Amino acid sequence: MLPLYSSMDINQKYTDLLKKQIESVKKECRYLEFKSNYQEADKLGRYISALSNGACLDHQDYAYLYFGVDDETLEVKGTTFDCSKVKAQGNEALELYLRRMVVPKLNFSIVEFEYEGNMRVVLFKIPAAVNEPTTYKQKPYIRVDSHVTDLTPYVDWMRQIYVSKIDWSAQIIEDATLEDLDAEAIITARKGFAEKFPQFAEDMVDWSDAVFLDRANLTQDGMVTRAAMLLVGKKEKAYKLGHIAQIVWKCYQGDKTFGDIFTIPFIKSTTEVLGCIRNYRFKIYPNNSLIPAEVWKYDTRSILEGMHNCILHQDYVCNERILVIEDDDKLTFENAGSFYEGDYEEYIMGQKTPKRYRNPFLAKAMDNVKMIDSKGYGIHNMFVRQKERYLPMPNYDESDDSHVIMQLPGTVMDEKYSLMLMENSDIGLTEAVLLDQVQRGKPINDNAIDLLRKKHLIEGRKPHLFVAKELAKNTGKKVEYSKHKGLEAKSCESLLLNTIKEHGILSRTEIDALLWNVVSDQLDDKQKKSKIGNILTNLRKRNLIENETMGNISKWSLVKTEK
Asked: Is residue 127 part of a domain?
């Protein structure tokens, strides 16, 4: 899968993140550090250890170390630090040295971006410690107040880190019994299990609820887990979780706002939310056809996929509610916690399989009762279904490092784009996703641009891209295409000659004003000036026009012919 986004997007993404962190945190903390510039390898290594451990203790997925920000004023000033050019001990590359000295191995990332377009900032994005403290040169560190110090004397903090890998969803609820579970929800779970494992369908008839729940990975040895309570627990027993377990549905319809709150059992309540969402068919008319294509506003499976993903990936320790927001043109799904295993882009083509989950016990249970697809096809299928329905692709543009936000468009953003998908069945998913970005005015990288150009799907100059001429013909985008493309040189010449004939003389300023908006809008001001200059030069060389320069003023007229 080609990466979808360009460096322009990266700059904006991390600029927004830095602004948000400065505004919300207002000072350094155990998982956030600011430095004006690089100092030395050992100091950087200790910071990586301390921040990783701090992120674990503060229930953050990542820690952040910025270079180019004043640590006292939090003013962004930029940095000259370039990790790729710095050497550590023994002339070893700094990054390799740090990855070797930090144990256990951390997949930290180094991001360079332009803050507000003119200040270079370097970010170390550091995963939180899991199951054991992160060490540098065999020693764990932690930030205490404004100092980085040895973590070892802080016994309670060490203990918290060592138990941090404990799966929240797998924990036994001590005061819960099978009587706290919803009978109808268990029946629903049984149906999902039978569909997932048809080889057990006949045998399941003889399984007691206790046997089934254990085999479905909902309970452990007959004891109720948090996963079991989330999926099949009685509504009135939700308090036993000790955490908020709610889905908030909120609907905006014109100037009206309404909604409802749903709680456990989630295996039933997601269907209840689905029943609240306004869904209907609408028509798209292909060119040269009187027979419309009828599509549902939302795909039912995609709605459930969105909610089930929220349930699965929710960071329940944050004690937040899952949100389902319905607008006139889209559904928005939001859960606490960042992407836990890669970025969503990696799943679009269905080629990536998640290796781990934030809530692995819950993941296994949801997979067993057919609420999710653990092979990593969930996001892929949502994109495929949107393409098949000729609608804009799902997007995660509003997500950040503390929340995943997925928007599912429920209407035609650009009818011409939908017609393009309808009338060009040979466009694959990769091309459809990239063209969706083009249609939404989002930048794409050079590799993606090359791919679309080779298939003659786009024209224009980066960053101003538009649908190619051949597609434009098929989708009714001829006017828009012509606006982007501009008039051909001959048409510009004809317009200019006729205008000079009408008025006798035109200054260069007047000629620029005449042709400025009829040459391609993909040209910048300098390129437009040069284009118009070339037109004038060609006409003069063909002895059709002549100019007279008086001071700084150039005036053009038709060449006079002798009678």
From this structure: yes
